[in-house]
Write a structure and sequence with these properties.
- With about 260 residues, this protein is of the alpha/beta class.
- About 30% of the residues lie in helices and about 25% in strands.
- The strands form two sheets. An eight-stranded mixed beta sheet has the order 1-10-9-8-7-4-5-6. It has a two-stranded antiparallel ribbon with strand order 2-3.
- Helix 2 runs antiparallel to helix 3 and helix 2 crosses helix 4.
- The radius of gyration is 18 Å and the shape is globular.
- Bound molecules: S-adenosyl-L-homocysteine.
- The site of S-adenosyl-L-homocysteine has 26 residues, from strand 3, helix 5 and strand 5.
Length: about 260
């Protein structure tokens, strides 16, 4: 079975964080009409209206599934997701699933980006570390909320592309580095929040060490070949407190972690 990064595991949902999809039958009908409307719009000469699609994405995929953090909703309403996907997939940028971004990697499903960001419980002003830059989209969403974002990508080509995109689009508070996120970013530690967007069998020790007291680390932990549990690790008096959120599927973390098995 192919594993695509950053999506809800369709085979089952667990956890304290999952709220039922609150769409009423009327909501479903309206959603259907909206999709039909967007379909028509995409075919017009003026081209697709990405702002309209983005608004629908936030309402139907994110708010409807119980994400209420206003900073997350605002950031996801603003960041132009269609500019972070390959040119040939622009039309699918606001759909409810992950998309390939080249180099065998993927940009996460919008809902997963929103959920992971909400789990970080950012208030603004934080210093955040991301492991797994990929397209740079998650970093951009974080950049709209936090004071500073440091993101590491092991694939040099993806890192280069994400760095130049983020610069072009105006995210001066996001720094991209090519390297192995297993070791974190020691020169910038501690971080108020850390997000790992690749699957790990367990938390890399350097990442927990670089988490500030009271900070939150959001990471998919489990069998990297099948599915994982989106997990929030909070540092309380130097000790990890574990909360499992939802079953998910991410691409595996590579690099040093593979040698430690
Ligand atoms: N957050 C991304 C999606 C992540 S896909 C986005 O918004 O588009 C997972 C990414 O993690 C891939 O790009 C992969 O190359 C990267 N990755 C895998 N192992 C890594 C490691 N050890 N260090 C840093 N990045 C890693």
């Amino acid at each position: 079975m192919a594993i695509s990064a950053g999506e809800v595991n369709p085979k089952g949902r667990v956890g304290i964080h999952l709220r039922p999809n609150r769409l009423s039958p009327l909501g479903v009908i309206l959603l259907g009409l909206e999709i039909a409307f967007l379909g028509c719009q995409a075919g017009t000469q003026s081209g697709p209206d990405f702002a309209v699609r983005r608004k629908a994405m936030v309402a139907d995929q994110i708010l409807a599934r119980g994400i209420h953090d206003s900073l997350v909703l605002k950031a996801m309403s603003e960041v132009p997701r269609h500019l972070f996907v390959p040119a040939g997939l622009v039309d699918e940028a606001y759909r409810d699933y992950p998309l390939p971004i080249g180099e065998g990697q993927t940009i996460s499903q919008p809902y997963i980006v929103a959920l992971m960001t909400e789990c970080l419980a950012l208030k603004g002003g934080e210093k955040v570390l991301e492991v797994g830059t990929g397209s740079g989209y998650q970093a951009a969403v974080l950049g709209r909320i936090a004071a500073a974002v440091f993101t590491i990508e092991i694939n040099a080509a993806l890192a280069r592309e994400a760095a130049s995109k983020l610069e072009r689009l105006g995210f001066p508070n996001v720094r991209v580095r090519s390297g192995d996120g297993f070791f974190g970013w020691p020169g910038e530690a501690p971080f108020d929040a850390i997000i790992v967007t690749a699957a790990v069998p367990e938390v890399p020790p350097a990442l927990f060490a670089q988490l500030a007291e009271g900070g939150r680390l959001v990471v998919p932990i489990g069998d990297v070949q099948t599915y994982q549990q989106l997990t929030v690790v909070t540092k309380k008096n130097g000790q990890p407190r574990i909360e499992r959120v939802l079953d998910v599927r991410f691409v595996p973390m590579t690099g040093e972690i593979l040698k430690r098995k």
